[in-house]
Design a protein that fits this description.
Keywords: Methyltransferase, Signal, Transferase
Pfam family, one: Methyltransf_23
Family: Belongs to the methyltransferase superfamily. LaeA methyltransferase family.
Order of helices and strands: HEEHEHEEEHEHHEHHE
Number of strands: 9
Largest sheet: 7 strands, mixed
Distance between the termini: 48 Å
Helix content: 40-55%
Bound molecules: S-adenosylmethionine
GO molecular function, one term: methyltransferase activity
CATH topology: Rossmann fold
Protein name: S-adenosyl-L-methionine-dependent methyltransferase
Length: 300
């Protein structure tokens, strides 16, 4: 019996750690989640966390909830949000859940990490009084079902807050030409992700999804993340600098994963497209920004 349990445990650990390597990057399971999970991606997530904090004027949360007891962070990644939240709210218990075991071992005592797939049945006993999810575009076949599960698992009067950047380049002054490679790239990525069954821009429907799940007092906040340091405003310049770094970091990995698997492109074609896209992203005369959407709603 003991031997069987040990074998089962070893098998589970082996399966969890058996990342797939493609084009020099490791993935948990690229057919399920197209971003890598290696050290390079973890550094990108940490930088992205700083970007989100600057965008939100240092706040980890935007909704008006004041007290927290049991908090769930969906798709926690490196767990940086969950750990900082736990530090800030020592009276709360924070659970961070992710497919990949990439969280550190030394964590605040009130923070726990679990390896699980939130697309499957939620088996947590007891309810949460805050659920948070950030940068989850491309994760789920049916993002609305995650909102429904959150609604079920929240106590009355508690909030679900979700935040995500839209990989949709916007420009208000005509400096982005309609035939730009950046626009073409964004359209191709969205098409590939849809074809693979996991939309990368669900944030454009967050408001409707919150309402449909039953949430009330819904609010959507839209910030601008410039593509580089083209903006005059100091905060936007800093966001643009960080955004250019995080975008460059993910450009090849995500394009390769989605375009080769979703649209059958070859790696040479992808590299050529990425070279054009990188040039446009770095050009300070092209005033592109990406919308960063934060949406929250309260369970009545
Ligand atoms: C871009 S990362 C965001 C990390 C974190 N939320 C943050 O903002 O720093 C998305 C994370 O969602 C996780 N993920 C994707 N699909 C998932 C699923 N079905 N269940 C649990 N986690 C999932 C990925 O493994 C990845 O770590």
């Amino acid at each position: 019996m003991v031997t069987r349990s040990v074998c089962f445990l070893l098998l589970t650990v082996t399966l969890l750690m058996a990342y797939r390597t493609k084009n020099g990057r490791t993935y948990h399971d690229p057919s399920r989640y197209p971003w890598p999970n290696d050290k390079q991606e973890q550094q990108r997530q940490v930088m992205l966390h700083e970007q989100c904090l600057i965008s939100n004027d240092g706040q980890l949360v935007c909704c008006p909830q004041e007290r927290y007891q049991r908090v769930l962070d969906i798709g926690t990644g490196t767990g940086i949000w969950a750990m900082e939240f736990a530090d800030k709210h020592p009276g709360a218990t924070v659970i961070g859940v992710d497919l990949s075991p990439i969280q550190p071992q030394w964590v605040p005592l009130n923070c726990n990490f679990e390896i699980d797939n939130v697309e499957l049945e939620w088996t947590w006993s007891g309810d949460f009084d805050f659920i948070h999810g950030r940068m989850l575009g491309g994760c789920f076949e049916d993002p609305a079902s995650i909102f429904n599960k959150s609604f079920e698992k929240l106590k009355r009067g508690s909030y679900l807050e979700v935040a995500d950047v839209l990989l949709i380049p916007k420009c208000d002054d005509g400096t982005l030409r309609p035939d730009s490679q950046l626009l073409r790239w964004a359209g191709l990525l969205a098409k590939a992700a849809d074809k693979m069954g996991r939309p990368i821009n669900p944030a454009s429907r967050y408001e409707q999804m919150l309402a449909k799940a039953g949430f009330e007092d819904i609010k959507v906040i839209e910030a601008k993340w410039p593509s580089n340091r083209w903006a005059k405003d100091q905060k936007l310049r800093v966001l643009g600098y960080l955004n250019s770094k995080t975008l460059q970091e993910e450009l090849e990995a995500i394009s390769m994963a989605l375009l080769t698997r979703g649209l059958g492109w070859g790696s040479f074609e992808v590299n050529v497209l990425c070279a054009y896209v990188r040039r446009e992203l770095m050009n300070p005369n092209i005033h592109v920004y990406f919308p960063f959407i934060t949406a929250y709603g309260k369970k009545p």
